[in-house]
Amino acid sequence: MADLFATSDTAIANFDVIDGRIPVLLVDNIFRDPAAVREAALALDYAPGTAHYPGRVGRFPEGDPSLTAFLKKLVSLVQGQYLPHMPILPNGQRLTGFRGLDTDFAITDFHPDQLSSKQRKPHVDAVPVFGLIYLNDPPRGGTLFYRQRNPREELLPAQGYPTAESEQIELSYRIEGLFNRLAIYPGFIPHSGEIEGDWITGEDRFRNPRLTQRIQFFI
Questions:
Q1: CATH value at residue 27
Q2: Structural contact between residues 25 and 15, judged by C-beta atoms closer than 8 angstroms
């Protein structure tokens, strides 16, 4: 497809906030042909993810003109519409721009029994702003954000994937993982994928896997 990552003329952007102060930007119907993006992404070669990621990651070849054009649009969107709403970061820094970004595609396919201790807990990202595009129809869960009930306690791992509530954490925000939705959110708030249902314990995690496009914004 000549312009695989073309954006839709009917994309709709909305703002929401976490804990009344941290912005989340949601853009529904981001790609013109999300089914084609999913098909092309699933055809990539995949390798193991990082220690925090319960699955595999793949990349498009560098210099893909359609992907490059899409990422330029995304930088413009985030710098123009998201950053002006960001509060000062936990380190005291005011975020006004990025020095670069990186994107890949990620498949979540670890059975809950396969998870490491790190993967059974909420995590924070290495970047203050993170983008995620949900490419699953039917949906395979969104993203959960947490507040620790007692921040001085050491967080214990869950039995499987982190859930919305436990004795130590409570849900502060949820992004619904709608098909073809772009979410731009703060990477410094503890969060996890919303991984639940029979698909993650059966063959569907391979036959019809949970696929997302990940975008990291570096400062």
A1: 2.60.120
A2: yes
185 closest CA partner among 82, 93, 97, 70:
82
Look at residue 104 and tell me if it is in a domain. Answer: yes
Q: pLDDT tens track of the chain, all 219 residues?
A: 689 999 999 999 999 999 888 999 999 999 999 999 999 999 999 999 888 899 999 999 988 999 999 999 999 999 999 999 888 888 878 888 888 899 999 999 999 999 999 999 999 998 999 999 999 999 999 999 999 999 889 999 999 999 888 889 999 999 999 999 999 999 999 999 999 999 999 999 999 999 999 999 988
State which residues form the domain around 141. Answer: 12-89+96-218
Does pTM surpass 0.70? yes
44 conformational bin, left if phi > 0, alpha if psi -120 to 50, beta if neither: beta
